[in-house]
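The instructor's notes for this session suggest beginning with a concrete chain rather than abstract definitions. Hand out the sequence below and ask the class to guess, before any prediction is shown, which regions might be ordered.
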Amino acid sequence: MAHPTLTIRSFDIVPVSVPLTHPVRTASGDVTHAPLLLIDLHTEQGVTGRAYLFTYTALALKPVVDLVHGLGERVTGKEVSPFDIGRELGAALRLLGDTGLTGMALAGIDMAAWDALARAAGMPLARLLGGSLRPVPSYFSQGMDGAKRGAELAEECLKQGFKAMKVKIGYPTLKEDLAVVREVQSVLGQEAVLAVDYNQSLSVPEAIRRSRALDEFELAWIEEPTRYGDVAGHAKIAREIRTPIMLGENWSGVQEMAASIDAGASDLVMPDLMKIGGVSGWLRAAATAATAGLPMSSHIFQEVSAQLMTVTPTAHWLEYLDLAAPILEAPLRIEGGMAILGDDPGSGVSWDRGAVERYRVS
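After discussion, reveal the predicted structure:
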């Protein structure tokens, strides 16, 4: 089937603030609302590609809106070719750099471009990239909820059929961390594995101390025990403990990913679709993980990430943490702990226009 060549006509960018049904508490701060940036890439051929960005804080919404507008104007009138767009915008930003908020804006444009291509081809993104619509193993991602609530959520995890769960820790004392892990794991038993996330809250010596104590639980991984940019620190922690270290959600591009892998700082990898460079960046990251032989999981952006996990050679776990469902026409479906991909064209992202207007911010 011949696919039409698409030309970018314009961009619509809408900021929204979506209240979370279950606010996410972390050792580094709480998330009660999801500040999202919704991107519509319109083409001359009538096809619209869609994507959303998660800015973590409402303070970043307006700057990222402005960046997407500015970068979008530079490629308006150009062909919807994600790699060509990436090269052109990358060259324009060489002096400024393409990380941080700029990198987020670039990733949003890239994701919307890939969605447009899949829609024009009349197939899901997974199939466009050569994958299939197979179910994707997912893990039940939760916050810093304490031992009692953590146990209740572990019961919910099993009820929904998940075979893996993650909880956030980093309480004031190691004793509290251990109590939560012990309680949650007692519920999960042999039916599901448990991972923990410190959200960068510990010093390197404290991370080693606490992680050694956690080794006895045979956890699936310990995530970001210290500052994400401390490659040497994470490498030292990894050498001192038995439990695998998981990094990735804060890597800005594949170069940072490769540097962590080369240093032995990360036993498992978890790129964030937005920070790694959108769909194009994810494909490069998947190749990097495959070359290193490291299992690769996803970080949020579950709708598009589920599509991409089907073409990831070392695919491990999809993180199920629903941030965007209230503004989506068809949220990601989970059955028996597996993400079920629909056969609609695109990346799995379509707006519920009424909800978008309800949560729109100026």
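Then share the key points. The longest helix spans residues 100-121. The longest strand covers residues 8-26.
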